[in-house]
Design goal:
It is a single chain. This protein is mostly beta strands and 71 residues long. It contains one helix and four strands. The N and C termini lie far apart (42 Å). The mean pLDDT is 88.
Length: 71
């Protein structure tokens, strides 16, 4: 819990989930465990990997918030 707080994460607002599938390979592999920060709200949005809930199903996806750079 102290380590999470040092990272700015509230332990009671985080969870660990297991990745199911290979759609995020090579970044994440089937069976990897990832920590989800439930307080990562809109004011903190940035390019990154997010856990989304759609129709009751959790999905782990990479999201680019802004336009592509360098194009």
């Amino acid at each position: 819990a102290a380590w999470l707080r040092a990272l700015g994460v509230k332990p009671q607002r985080s969870s660990i989930i297991r990745v199911d599938g290979e759609s995020m390979a090579p970044t994440l592999s089937d069976g990897d465990e990832i920590m989800v920060d439930h307080d990562d709200g809109a004011e903190r949005l940035r390019d990154g990997v997010y856990v989304l809930r759609l129709d009751g199903v959790l999905m782990v996806k990479r999201a680019a918030i802004g336009p592509l750079r360098g194009r």
